[in-house]
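Progress narrative, work stream C.
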Amino acid sequence: MPKQKGGVASRAAAKWHSLLRWMYASGRPNRMARFLNRISAFQFSTGLLAPGNWVTLEVRGRRSGRPVTLPVVVTDHDGERYLVSMLGPNANWVRNVRAAGGQAVLRHRGRERVRLQVVPVAQRAPILRRYLHLAPGARPHISVEREAPLAEFERMAARFPVFRITPDPTGR
């Protein structure tokens, strides 16, 4: 839909963004979001009608020890790959990744064991801008226009963890 100030397209987008914010109002997915995430995680891991950068993240739960899966968007920037937490540092998957020492699995038509390394705040701005271009579902949660100057992304970079994806050398 083309962007039109005050037009049908912008009203529809506003309603869609409102729905997405409602699904994560507490900073965690509500029942509807969890249901949709399960469907998306399956779809992304199989690669069915999903771009190559839409993957399923699998990480060991910090309390249960069981694998926790969720759909994520891999962001490419300067030849590297990254994951961004649209819900900030207290998102469940972020805390699980930290507890697991960064070890995780990405699934999209196969399994890739990876290590997720925290990106310093000073390096996050261009990655966050690229992320907003690739992850339409994240736009309602990050209050910067995707075409905004890099300085605006720098001001809010500390609120959104970014992880560099590297191969897991241990293969565990």
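Work stream C, second folded protein:
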Amino acid sequence: MEIRGFIPQVLPASMLSLASGVPSAPPGTIFVKAAQGGYAVPPRKFTLHFGRATNDVHVAVGADDFYVSRLHGVFTCDGNQWWLRNEGKRPIQMPGADMVLRGHELPMTAGYTPLTIETPNCKSHLLEVHIVGYPGNVQEGDSQMSTATSDVYYLGHAERLVLTALAQRYLRQDRYPQPVSWKQVADDLNRVATYRSWTPRIAEHTIAALRKRLAAGRDPISGILREDGIGEPVGNTLNDNLIRALLKNATLIPQDLYLLGEEI
């Protein structure tokens, strides 16, 4: 699709999560969505505003939470690259442990990126961003290519269920998150997945098998298996590396917490 065939447009609140993909759009188009709806803009000189002030921004986020700034941030484009800048008082949480502080900015990468704004009243406001592959990364003659998505890894239902329970602190954007104990994983799964009996050993073996599979796949993840001659890793290092890698490429996203019965 050519840029002139795609105009800036409102995204309805009923639109599915951007993690599932976006409609056909020119490379470089940004889609931004929160609970109340969103906005999409092709690559052009543009500033897309988001924040609490519903009538003054393109994308309203945290409209019922006074800890979210009226203008909390902007996405700006120079005609090609999109940048995120935090204009609010609260930091914007990137996948993993990185944060964008007030007055700071960073370039956005193509694909799906879930952002969150955490507030002192224990609310977590999700802002989904999906950028179609940038024009500089598209070969000539590929203007009709399908929308680019993140290179996510396949997870079976049981793998995703156990992983979500293990990574729940990361998905809730807790400060300095660590994997929960295997006992807590089993307890949580026995509460929400009653079709089988979960034990700490079953949960641990499920994740160990997953680490082994993803360390040997087509696009292997490093740092998730013990290396001979290096000694035992400290604490939860292997699982922490696994979780952060899957958060980074959006294989694991905050919406997965619904598997634990949480509303997102």
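The longest helix spans residues 200-215. No further action is required on this item.
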